[in-house]
Amino acid sequence: MTPLLEIRNVSKNFDALKVIDDVSFSVPANGRTALIGPNGAGKTTIFNLISGFYDVSSGVVLLDGMDITKVPSRKRAALGQARSFQNIRLMPHLSVVENVMLGQQSRADGLKQALLPLRASHLRAEAEAQLESMNIRVHPDDVVSSLPYGIRKQIEVVRALASKPRLLLLDEPAAGLNPAETAALVEFLRKISDSGVTLLVVEHDMSLVRSLCDHAVVLNFGRKIYDGATAHVHEDPQVLEAYLGPGHAGKAGLAGAVA
Amino acid sequence: MSGYWAGILSILAVNIIFAYAIFIPVATGQLNLGGAGFQAIGAYTAAFLSASVGLSVTFTLLAATIMAGIAGGALAFPILRTRGVYLILATFAFAEVVAGVILNSETLGGAMGMSVPGYVEWYVPCILAGAVTVFVFYLMATRFGLNMRAIHDDDVVSDLMGVNVRMTKVIAFAIGAALAGLAGGLYAHTFTYVEVQGFNAMVSIYVLLYVLLGGTQTAWGPIVGASFFTLLPEFLRAFLPKLQVWVLGVLGQDAATVQPPDESWRFVLLGVITVLMMAFRPEGFVTRDLVDRFSWRSRRLRTPDGAKS
Lengths: 259, 309
What we know:
The complex is a heterodimer of chains A (about 260) and B (about 300).
Chain A lengths: L4 E10 L2 E11 L4 E5 L6 H8 L7 E6 L2 E2 L5 H4 L4 E3 L12 H8 L7 H5 L6 H12 L15 H13 L5 E5 L7 H16 L3 E5 L3 H7 L2 E6 L2 E7 L7 H8 L10 H4 L1
Parallel strand pairs in A: 3-8, 3-9, 6-7, 7-8
Antiparallel strand pairs in A: 1-2, 1-4, 4-5, 9-10
Chain B lengths: L2 H25 L7 H19 L3 H23 L4 H20 L10 E2 L7 H19 L1 H11 L1 H6 L4 H27 L1 E2 L6 H14 L5 H31 L13 H17 L7 H7 L1 H6 L8
């Protein structure tokens, strides 16, 4: 079976600086994959390469077997991928439901949809239903900038889902959330995963990674150093070295610091 | 209706259409400081077709709108590559080029200007201003309007969502230019005379001020801004002498011995109000919050905790 997403020998340079160095991995369909690594390892850069925000310097990005390396970023949403951002990037002056409706854009391209008043569109009812089904208890006409942080994070995920993606890229979904909110988020993401959406998650919170993801890819200084089951990631000597520094790799007692 | 009020209403209607012309690109995140250039294209198109070809006002206004729209679309392609202050300078330079071309054209009367045979009564601009207002409200409520507002907030994310950022910007700029052309055409037929000095840089600056101070988040902003700044000088015309008498009275002076206030004092007060607005309502007078507060829909649907019941 072809993986839903495959990164093949991808490198990215900014002038002389090599940010991503020959990284390959694949994300199995319907799975929940984590992309982890220390700060500056290149996780968000990988996301930017997948979503087309950056062009790769070399290598290939395949979505469901199709080479999307040269597809412009605007057209990638229509191919079935959507993402959230490390710092929430909702449109502050738009209402909740308008933000979600913006997420539907890749399915609503066309003159008829463009000129139909939003209130008369069935897509508005769909967006409201989607907010409701995800248990986001806000008024759809509330302006986003007035809402609490945790709710805005959830709305950003719903906006990404509004394009009906097969692959959802989440950049630090738990950043800034308290433990209760994080637990709610894991439930929320499981629900999304159960509906058939493949998840690729960049995350620092290892408890979230272990409770949500079965497969992990670890990056360090732009290179892949681990690719396998989440359950064994804290036993890998290279991962321990990346997080704790050289000399600690053998000390099993410190493994808990990573895990 | 007295000639004075007919004149005020005509000017108000032209200014409202002109403000919407600038609002549409601004709502998409592009500051247009070349408004007078597009207005001049519309005004001279209408003036020329009325004077030299003898077309009726219906057709001259239509031609003015289309000509300015085409000029806007053609300019938008190269110019929208620039951003921020460079875009402002580029649009400003465009208006100067238009003024320069007109000034050096004998067909268009050069510095002498042109008289326009076609005349429109005050209700023509008023009806068209109403129609333009309805059109802009409709446009902002569509998905195209949603895309415009999204690009204003974050063009990178809009692109990732699948919005055609460049096309949306170009269309918004062209629609704005077309409306400026319509405003120019109406100006020509209302005053039955056009001269290039009527479309100088101050005109571009004032109309951008109407929009920025009125508020760019909703379609209410331009109509409020344009009305306020058009009617304020008229109000001050009557109010300033009274203010002067009062101030002098407080200072213990006899008002009868002093000259009545100069015209320029009106612009002093206008400037003060502009500065105060910038300080206290930097997002413009009409914001989305303000509209929500007065909308019956939100008041009826909302429960006290803000959640949907």
